[in-house]
Amino acid sequence: MKPAGSEPPLTPAPLVRDALATDMPAIQAIYEHHVLHGLATFEEIPPSAEEMAARWERIRALGLPYLVAELGGRVAGYSYASSFRPRAAYRYTLEDSVYVAQELGGRGIGTALLAALIARLEAGPWRQLLAVIGDSGNAGSIALHRRLGFRMTGTNKAVGFKFGGWVDTVEMQRELGPGSSTLPA
Which 3-state string (H, E, C) describes 89-156? Predict the structure, then answer.
């Protein structure tokens, strides 16, 4: 039995805020690790900080949120929403992306980012949020999305080829606001 007061202090909650241009090098470093070492993204060549900044600008130009989580004064992860597909009929459906610095997983950063993203999106006109999760074995991302109200909608088998093997994607979905219960304004 541990003596009273010997427990480690709880990790402070991450601060979630809008991403800034000055965050792009940290965002690029987080994403680069996932590109080079993981299956969450099917990109194989890490984009530069300049390319990440251009992507950030495109998301902002659509009026969509792009967020970062700070922990201990450093960017610990990021999330954003993007258009699901370009055709007009999909205009109320978005796709989320969430990435956390490899060494900071399991500290609630992904949950804080995705919860804040959902809250922002529910304040807008959007009605559906999809997650296209790289690797059907990505238990952490699947659990994160399930915790925040997503339901499994399917698995696309062997649709990616990375690191010398075939990779599945898992699709999950959650309604935003009234979802499909009412027509959009």
Answer: HHCCEEEEEEEECHHHCCCCHHHHHHHHHHHHHHCCCCCEEEEEEECCCCHHHHHHHHHCCCEEEEEE
Res 177 pLDDT > 80:
yes
CB distance 66 to 19 below 8 Å: yes
Entry pTM: 0.92
| Cβ neighbours of residue 39 closer than 8 Å, sequence gap 6 or more | 134, 135, 137, 138, 160, 162, 163, 167
Q: Look up residue 64 and give its amino acid.
A: L
- Give per-residue pLDDT as tens, 136-167: 999 999 999 999 999 999 999 999 999 999 99
- Helices 24-37/49-61 angle, 10° precision: 110
Q: What's the pLDDT score for residue 11?
A: 66
155, β-bridge pairs: 170
Rounded to an integer, what is the distance from CA 132 to the centroid of its chain? 10
